[in-house]
Specification:
This protein has 11 helices and 12 strands. It is an alpha/beta fold and about 325 residues long.
């Protein structure tokens, strides 16, 4: 059950990076997130989808408070986190945790996993040593690991086990919000479903609010309430998850869904393949950012950037031609 007011939101978020010179690289200002508005309500799971390089990981770090925005603001319970008093900001950081993409680099290789999981509880300083130890064993059991694992180092575990450790570490501070950045992309396909199921179980048992970032829409299909589709720093479609798959309203979403592998014989929407590579964020195309790769592009698409507008009830898309391309 979700509430009507957002627990976490971003208002007109902007993030740019200045990239340096290199013999084979471009220089200039890279726009990673460009004026995004996003709301996540308590108890909701929101998916953020798009190709690598579209800015979705940067958006996740902005929402988690790990990066400062160059414009706009992130709000927690209606308050801008940049202006929170030190104690309230510390509480936000404790209550908002991130699970990172690479389980091989997200853990300190010199720390035993028991110490890694206990560290957030030690920093919080609200529990005794015995309470921390008991909580640590409880979290380990919850994520499918055993007490004997606490004295081992990260390099003694598989990728799937390391991601379970990352989830355990995120849960150790009793978070309210989890932001998972490509939590299964580096794992074998046989392990991915286990981790996704674990995240769903943790959400239910701990009453979490979640944002899951993925380039793979099929990962988000069955676990998210809403899905936001990003392209070159902006949101091009936003809708309830079932609507994104059944009644998409943007050609980029159509192409992403057409690219999902299907079992032979399963009905597939007419393919809408993407042509070319994602343009550089250092040189974002004018007009609609997707027009150089869009099979429907018209003159207006090349000159005028489309606003994110409601095309169907609760479903928004940034496409001039959406109502002409897709049936109501």
């Amino acid at each position: 059950m979700t509430s009507s007011s957002p627990l976490l939101s971003g208002i007109n978020l902007l993030k740019r990076f200045r990239v340096g010179a290199g013999p084979a690289s471009q220089t200039g200002v890279l726009t990673s997130v460009d004026g995004i508005d996003i709301e996540i309500r308590k108890g909701e799971t929101v998916g953020i989808a798009g190709e690598s390089g579209c800015g979705k990981s940067t958006l996740g770090k902005l929402l988690a408070g790990l990066l400062p925005p160059d414009g706009g603001e992130v709000r927690y319970c209606g308050k801008a986190i940049q202006t929170l008093p030190a104690a309230e900001r510390a509480r936000f950081r404790q209550r908002t945790q991130m699970i990172f993409q690479d389980p091989y680099s997200s853990l300190n290789p010199r720390m035993r996993i028991g110490d890694s999981i206990a560290e957030p509880m030690v920093i919080a300083g609200s529990r005794s040593g015995e309470e921390i130890r008991a909580a640590m064993f409880g979290i380990l059991e919850a994520v499918g690991l055993e007490p004997k694992h606490i004295d081992r180092f990260p390099d003694e575990f598989s990728g799937g086990q390391r991601q379970r450790i990352g989830i355990a570490r995120a849960l150790a501070s009793s978070p309210e919000i989890i932001i998972a950045d490509e939590p299964v992309s580096s794992l074998d396909i046989s392990i991915q479903a286990q981790i996704i199921n674990l995240l769903q179980t943790m959400k239910t048992e701990h009453r979490l609010t979640m944002a899951i970032i993925s380039h793979d829409l099929s990962v988000l299909r069955h676990v998210c309430d809403r899905v936001l589709v990003m392209y070159l720093g902006v949101i091009v479609e936003s809708a309830p998850a079932d609507q994104v798959f059944q009644h998409f309203r943007h050609p980029y979403t159509e192409a992403l869904i057409a690219a999902i592998p299907r079992i032979t014989g399963e009905h597939r929407h007419a393919a809408a393949p993407l042509s070319g590579d994602l343009p550089s964020p250092l040189a974002i195309p004018g007009g609609c950012r997707f027009h150089p790769r869009c099979r429907y592009a018209a003159d207006i698409c090349r000159t005028t950037q489309p606003p994110l507008e409601e095309k169907r009830i609760g479903q928004f898309a940034a496409c001039h031609l959406s109502n002409n391309i897709y049936s109501p």
